Amino acid sequence: MGFTIGGSRGTKEFRSGVRRRGRTSECTTVAEYTGLWGWDAVPGARAAAPARDCSCGHTNCVAPGAHPLGFAPTVPGGATLDEVTEIWGEYPGATILLPVGRTFDLIEVSAEAGRRALVRMERMGLPLGPVTVTPDGRAQFFVAPGAADELPQLLYRMGWDDADLDLRALGHGAFLTAPPSDHAGLGPAGWLRRPALDCAGGPPQARLLLGTLAYTCHRFRR
Fold it and tell me: Is 154 helix (H, G, I), strand (E, B) or coil?
């Protein structure tokens, strides 16, 4: 498969492979997420194309290549490059996963609807956080924590509660595949809008973006 992350023979086999304790590009990327943007990061499993067998070793894995390694620690927000290298060097080849529900929640729509909504929101001058795009065609807008719990009530207040919208919120317990990591064996995740110092630590409230996202999703489905 080209990598061995958390296979059925457990942690010992994983750690007995080649250990890259140097400052690799993936360590540098993780350190940007933790040190610059203040996000926690977790080493994740990978899936090999074309069968997308998950490196966790479970044949019935429900999220191949898109879940944390069960034995890997969380790298906390604020971790320096040296600290990241010490931890991440134990898990070469792991995907970079960001826990949702701590410093941000996500509102997810189709990639095409997300692109259209992003253009509209930029023209309107709305406050925006980062936006990712997945290889399976989803756009994920960073919003303030709590959006997942508030979404039904927000949609009700805006009159979108009975609309057939391809829109959902992700909160505590979910994980974001951070660019440029491979997402579920389908290809790399990417940015529609990269993080910036003025928004990464404090993404906008969901209510500020939800109206435009709901409207765009509704128009796109029609």
Answer: helix
Residues 6+ apart with CB under 8 A from 65: 44, 45, 46, 47, 52, 54, 55, 95, 182, 183, 184, 185
Question: Cβ–Cβ contacts within 10 Å for residue 92, how many?
Answer: 20
Q: Which residues pair with 169 in a beta bridge?
A: 107
> Rounded to 5 degrees, what are φ and ψ at 131?
-140, 125
Which residue would you say has higher pLDDT here, 76 or 55?
A: 76
Overall pTM > 0.90: no
β-bridge partners, 132: 140, 191
For residues 64 and 81, what is the distance between their CA atoms, to the nearest angstrom? 28
The 10 Å CB-count burial string (b at 16+, else e) for 144-179 is bbebbebbeebbeeeebeeeebebebbbeebbbbbb
- For residue 106, what is the enclosing H or E element? strand 105-110
> Which run of H or of E encompasses 98?
strand 95-99
Sequence-ordered alpha helix ranges (H) in the chain: 11-15, 25-31, 81-88, 111-124, 147-158, 206-221
Collapsed DSSP state (helix, strand, coil) of residue 34: helix
Encoded tokens for 127: 């406050």
- Per the prediction, the chain carries an average pLDDT of 87
User: Do 46 and 3 contact (CB within 8 A), yes or no?
Assistant: yes
